[in-house]
Predict the 3D structure of the following.
Amino acid sequence: MALILNEEQQSLKDIARDFLEKNAPITHFREIRDTANETGYSQELWKEMSELGWAGILVSEDYGGFDFGMMGMGGILEETGKTLTPSPLFSTAVLGASLLEMAGDDTQKSNYLPRLVSGELTTAFALEEGSHHNPTNITTSAKKDRDNFVINGKKTFVIDGHSADLIIVAARTKGDEDDPNGISLFCVDSNNKNLKVIKQSMVDSRNCAEIELKNVTVSKNDLLGDLHNAYSVIENVLDVARVAIAAEMLGNSSKAFEITLDYLKERKQFGVLIGSFQALKHRAAEMYSEIELTKSAVVSAMNAIDEKSNDTARLSSLCKFKACETSHLVSNESVQMHGGVGVTDEYDVGLFLKRSRVAEQVFGNADYHVDRYATLSEY
Amino acid sequence: MTDLQTFREETRNWLEANCPPEMRKPGDVCWGGRNPQFSHPDQEIWLERMGDKGWTCPTWPSEYGGGGLSKEENKILQEEMSAIGARSPLGSFGIWMLGPALLEFATEEQKKEHLPGIVKGKYWWCQGYSEPGSGSDLASLSTKAIEDGDNYVINGQKIWTSYADRADKIFCLVRTGPQEPKHDGISFLLIDMDQPGVTTRPITLISGKSPFCETFFDDATAPKKDLVGGLNKGWTVAKRLLEHERTMISNMGLAGGGDGSGSKKMSGLAKVSKQYVGEDADKKIANPSLRSKVAKHEMNSRAFGLTLQRIGEETKVGAPSPAAAMSKYYGTEHNKLRYELLLEAMGSKALGWEGEGFTPEELAITRDWLRTKANSIEGGTSEVQLNVISKRVLGLPD
C-alpha cells in the first residue's frame, strides 16, 4: 500500500497550495463572509479552479475528466482546508462527479459530466433528513406516475444546495423508513418550480440549504441508477466523500496547529515565551501525534479508494473518525492556547474551530464511524 | 524475472532446505551468549545457519558479518520466513540497540571486533544506562571510569539492566570528564561482565519476576580501545541508541492489535470481549460502552500501525526518524490502554495472581497488564518523549 504521494500527486498538491495561497487565502474567505456573498463562494475563483482541472479529477477521460484519483483530489482538499477556501469542490467535483460516474447511464453522463468538468454545472446531493447523519433514514418519497416520478419530502444540511444547478435527491421508492432497500436517486433541476430552497446560514459561513420538495415531477429518464437499489452506490459515494472531507479536515487541523505553534513561539508572559511552559508543550506534542495518525489514516483511505480495496469502507470510517477526533482536539486547544485573542473574530483560529464542527457532522461524526467500524468488523 | 523475484525464489529454497522442522513452530527465541542455552537442538542449528548467512542481522554490511541485504530484500526475507512460520533465530540487544550504534559511531577496528560476534550470537549484551539517582535525568549519571594505563577502572552502580545476570558484556554510559558540563563528560564504554569487579542482583517488579537487575562496579576494568565514539562524546551515541530502543519498544504497542493491514477482521480485544461479556442478537459485543471503547482502540491501533508503516516509507534504511519519540510515546500509552481494556472485558478473571481458578492465559494477562506499566517509563518516560517532541520536532523554546 502506498502511504506517500507519488511525484505527480505531490506536484498537483504543491500547485494547489501555491494557487490557493495567492488567490484564495483566509482573507478571501473573510471577504465572502463579510459581503454576504449570495452564492457563498466566488464564481470567478471556481472558474479558475475548473480551468486548473480540479472539477474533473474524479471524472473519467471518456467524459472529459482526468481520472486522477483520490490521491490527487485529497491533496487539493487538504490545501483548501488550510486556507478555508469556500468553493463547490466538495459538492460538485467529489459528490456530484462520483454520483454521476457511479450511478449514471451513458446519456446522463454525457449530458452532465463534461459541463461539470468545465465548471459550468454545479451539483448538490440532497440526502440527510435529520440532525444526524443517517443514510437509510429516507422518508422523502418518489411515486411513479406513468412516465414520471413525483417526489415529496424535505431535505436538510444539503451542502451548496441553494446555489447548485443540479440537485441529486435520494428518495424512497418502496419499503419502510430505515430500510436500505427501496432507495432511488433522481436528478432534479434546481429551477423546478416545486422546489423550495431555503439557504441555511451556518456557523462556518459556508453554504447549506434546506430543500422542500412538493410534488416535484421528474421524467423517468431522470432516475439515476437502478430503481430501488441506489443504496450500495450511495454507500460507495459516501465513502469517497468521507475521505474527501477528512482530507480537508486534516488541512484544517494542520494549519490551526501551525498558527498555534507560531503563537507559542512569539507570545511572552511572565517575561518568557509561553511555548516554554511544559503545560502547553505536552499538549502540543499530543496534538502532533494525533495529526500524524490522522495523516496516515487519510492517505491509506485515499489509496484504498484508488485501488478499489475491499477494505475501503472500514478505512473510510477510520479516517473520518480520526479526522473528527483530531480536528475537535486541535481546534479547541488552538483557541485556548491563544488566550483572549483566540476568542476574537480578528484572529483566524476561531474560523478553524467553526469550520471544524460543521465538517465533523458531514456524513457521520466520530461516534457514527466508531459504531460503523465495529459493525463492519463483526463485533 | 527481476532480481527481487530471483532473490525471493532463492531465499524460499534456502529456507526450505535450512530451517529445521522444530524452528517452524512457535516457541522461545534463543539469546545466544558464551554459554548459550538451547531449548531444542534445532535451535542451535538454526542459529548457526542463519548466523553464517548473516541473516540474524539481514541489513548489516557483509564485511561485518551481516546479510548485506537491501530494505526490499529484507522485506522479502521476513515475508518468506513468516510464510513457513520460521522462528527468529536470535534475540539480542546487540542486534536491536548496540549494533546500529556501532555501525554509526565505532571505528573500523571496533566494528570488525564486535559486530560479527553480535551477528553470530557469540555474546549476550546488556545495557547500562540508568542509575539509582539518574532516571529521566540520565545525563546526571555518576558511574566513574578513570584512566589507568591501557585501561579504565570503573566504579558505580547501574539499575534496570535487563538480563545483567545472564549477559556476557555490557554497553555502558560512564563519566570520564567529571569537570565538564554534564552532557560533555560522558563516554560510551564496552565492559566485560565476567570479572570480579562486576556483580548483579535481580529486581522483582509489581508483575513478579523480571529480567531487570542492579549492576555494581567495584574497580572493574575495561580496555581503552573499547571506548566508542570518542572520549566524552558518549552522549551523542547514547541519544541515538535511545532512538533505536524507542523504536523497539513502540512496536510493542501493536502486540495484539492492528498491524495496519487490517487483515484479521475481528481483533483479539474484540474476541476476548465477546468471550467474557457475550454478544447480542446482532452479534455485537453485549456491553455497548465496552464495544465503543474497544472499537476506538482498534481504530487507533490501525492508524498507529499505518503511521509506523508510513514513517518507514518516508525514512531511509536504518536511519531512526525524528518521529521515534512520537512512536514510543503513543505506542506505550496505547499498549497500557489495551491492557486496561482487557481487564475491563475480563472482569475478576483478569485479576488472578497464581494457582487454580484461572486459566494460564488469564494469569498471564494479569502479569502482562502490570508489566505494561513500565512501558511508558523505560527507555524514557512518556513525559520525556513529549519534551523531546516539543523541542526537536516542534521547535518549542526551552
